[in-house]
Structures are given as C-alpha cells and as structure tokens.
Design brief:
Length: 88
C-alpha cells in the first residue's frame, strides 16, 4: 500500500498534481496490477505545515516522505518516487 498526499492550499494546483499522479499510477498498474494506493488531498494549512513551510505551490508526500516541494512534478518523477516506495 502506497499512501500519497497532495499538499496545496489551492484546488487547481492539487488537481494538476493529481492528474500527473494518476497518469503515473496508470502506467505502474501495467507492471503492478495489484498495487494499492490511497490518495489524500491536504487543504488545511496546519496539516500542510507538518510537512513543509511551502503552502502556496503544491507539494507531494509518498508514504510520509516529502518528495516534492513547491512545484509541479513531471510524470516521470512521480513514477520514480512511486517505484521507490514499492521497493521499500
């Protein structure tokens, strides 16, 4: 099980990161069809600050590890982080 959190104060930014994340997951499911994931969108400032001080731009947490701060990751980056989480 991979737990993923998308951190952002603004909804359009969470949506953009989620689309990239879903594209990466779609590719991973071809190799790992039984892969289970849980995606949470974190909107509350107090909850986001537990991971990063950057709250205006999106950040991404995979299995409680902050992997991307204050930017929009590429699908290939997300794929790499998810593959690392699978190996752990």
């Amino acid at each position: 099980m991979i737990n993923i959190k998308i951190l952002s104060y603004k909804s359009p930014q969470r949506y953009a990161v989620k689309r990239t994340l879903l594209a990466a997951l779609n590719e991973l499911h071809k190799t790992y069809p039984d892969l289970k994931t849980a995606i949470t969108e974190v909107k509350e400032l107090s909850e986001m600050e537990k991971y990063t001080a950057v709250v205006i731009l999106p950040s991404l947490v995979v299995n409680e590890k902050l992997v991307c701060v204050g930017r929009f990751p590429s699908r290939l980056e997300v794929d790499g982080w998810l593959r690392s989480a699978i190996k752990e």
